[in-house]
Every structure is written in structure tokens, then in C-alpha cells.
Amino acid sequence: MLRYEYKKENPIPNRAFFKKEATNTYHLHIYTYQSTEWQDNILFRDYLRKNTSKKHEYEQLKKSLASTFPNDRPTYTKAKSPFIKKTINEARAIFLNNRNLNN
Questions:
Q1: Domain limits at 83?
Q2: What tens digit of pLDDT does each residue of 6-35 get?
Q3: Structure pTM?
Q4: Residue 65's domain is classified under what CATH number?
Q5: What is the DSSP string of the chain?
Q6: I need a surface site. Which of 3, 9, 19, 54 has the fewest CB within 10 A?
């Protein structure tokens, strides 16, 4: 049995959120397929896969925030948000620019 607990308090639309019981280190996010939130997560993932410097920057940010907020998951998550939003916007701009160049 996986033992994930569904969390009703969920500020993100089109997402179901589950947390591993008795720990705060494992989370499962399930998005509505092809929703804006789903697309943003795929875009973020793919952009980090292709951009090693951005991936390293995100890794360092997460490590720094984890040591700064070891027992405050909401603040840790909130502190990552500007980086994630900026990265998604960068990725979207590149994607749209490449799509326009190919038309």
C-alpha cells in the first residue's frame, strides 16, 4: 500500500494533491490532463531537462531553501514560486518564438 493522504486544502486549480503519511518529503500532484496547470508543469519539466544551467540553479535554490526552512514546507514552497513562474515564462517565450520561426 502506498499510504498517500488526499489533502483537501488545495490552492491550485485542476490539481489533486496527496502527501505521504507521516512524512513531509513526498508529495504527489495530479493535474487535469492538458489544463493550463498541467501544461505549465510539463513546460517547466522539459525546459529544465534541456537547460542544465537553469536546472542547476533550481537545484541550488531548493537546497538553500530546504536548509533555511527545514520545518516550514509552506514557506519553502512559496519561496520557490517566483523562480518557477519566471522559468515557465522564459520557456513559454522560447517555445512561442521557435514556433513562430518554424511557420
A1: 4-101
A2: 988 877 899 999 988 877 778 899 999 999
A3: 0.84
A4: 3.30.460.10
A5: ---EEEES---STTEEEEEETT-SS-EEEEE-TT-HHHHHHHHHHHHHHH-HHHHHHHHHHHHHHHHHSTT-HHHHHHHHHHHHHHHHHHHHHHHHHHHHHT-
A6: 9
Residue 19: exposure state from Cβ atoms within 10 A (0-12, 13-18, ≥19): middle
Q: Give CA separation, 85 vs 2, 66, 101, in Å.
A: 31, 19, 24
How many structural domains compose the chain?
1
Alpha-carbon distance values, 19 to 26, 65, 75, 81 (Å): 6, 20, 17, 19
